[in-house]
Amino acid sequence: MPFELEPLFTIIGQAVVYFALFLFAIAVLGSLLIAYSFKTERFFFPGFMLFSITLLETLVKALFRFVGMDDSMVDDVGIALKNKISLRKFRDTPLNKRLIFFPQCLRATTCPSKLSPEGMQCINCGSCEIGAAKKSAEGMGYKVFIVPGSSFIRRLVRKHKPKAILGVGCMTEVKAGLEMCERLNLFGVGLVLEKAGCVSTVLDWDKFYEFIEFDEPNDIRPF
Q1: Which residues of 23-41 are buried (b: 16+ CB within 10 A; e: fewer)?
Q2: Cα distance between residue 163 and residue 93, in whole Å
Q3: DSSP assignment letter at 199
Q4: For the chain, where do the domains classified as CATH 3.40.50 start and end?
Q5: What is the mean pLDDT of the chain?
Q6: CA distance 181 to 87
Q7: What does the radius of gyration of the chain's CA atoms come to, in whole angstroms?
Q8: Nearest residue to 193 via CA among 104, 125, 132, 114
Q9: pLDDT category, 56, cuts 50, 70, 90?
Q10: Which fold has domain 83-213?
């Protein structure tokens, strides 16, 4: 190796090390803020937290696991932050330009509804809360769908061309849905199920009704 290249490689190596240390410091500080926010339900430096979650999610979650903490806190806080950022624009959107998506797993196990191109067709049989919730929201002007998967959501978004979306689902689904909204330039907010799974899932319905009926809900955070 020519002698004159050694100083260049040294500088590059040092720069890489310093950059890695810089990212690690951001991840550590972001992790501390996330843990504090989860515990107190108060956000400090939300932009910085969202930046650390978006850019360094894998590293931040690894730090949580390293200290024996549940790394799902990272997703909890990330969803709450995105809700907080999008909420005002969501509420400024006309009701007839807002869609609500329920997951089909929220239905009763005895649900007689049939699948159609618009999702599950609820007949309001009273076996679960979805029928009453759908009727209430549609009466306000929302369009409401019960969907079996993300492919339905994408197709219905293309068809109905909303400006804002309220998605209900497990943490993974809500997180993916909010990311989709960001890509499509939609105002997305999400409510995470209290109990997830393939069937008989549970939603905090009081939180749902509070969110769709009032201008300023007390709490739409998932934790």
Answers
A1: eeebbeebbebbbebbeee
A2: 7
A3: S
A4: 83-213
A5: 85
A6: 13
A7: 21
A8: 104
A9: confident
A10: Rossmann fold (3.40.50)
Q: Pull the structure tokens for residue 36.
A: 């504090």
DSSP per residue, 75-139: HHHHHHHHHHHHHHHHHHS-GGGEEEEEEGGGS-TT---EEETTEEE----SSSSHHHHHHHHHH
Q: Are the CB atoms for 194 and 204 separated by under 8 Å?
A: yes
pTM over 0.85: no
In this predicted structure, what is the pLDDT of residue 151? 87
User: What pLDDT does residue 5 have?
Assistant: 64
Tell me which of 219 and 28 has the higher pLDDT: 28
CA pair distance 223, 204, nearest whole angstrom? 11
Residue 150 · residue 156 · CB < 8 Å: no
pLDDT at residue 223 is higher than 60: no
